[in-house]
Design brief:
Length: about 80
Amino acid sequence: RLVFHYMPKHGSRLNMAEIEFSVLSRQCLRRRIPHIETLRHEVGGWQTERNRSKRKANWHFRTPDARIKLSKLYPSF
């Protein structure tokens, strides 16, 4: 069974995934890795360390800012 869930492009989950891929790229993949097993080992180690450090996203775009910038999406009462 296949269920589709709408995720807007400006949604926070998509942004968080993009941030994590960016960090992975900068911290782990900036060099040539010749073998797939080496790549798996490196990414696994990076993932373990990233999960252990429990890093959090630091959002600068807050709800009041969103209500101004995305006023068409927020109803006025």
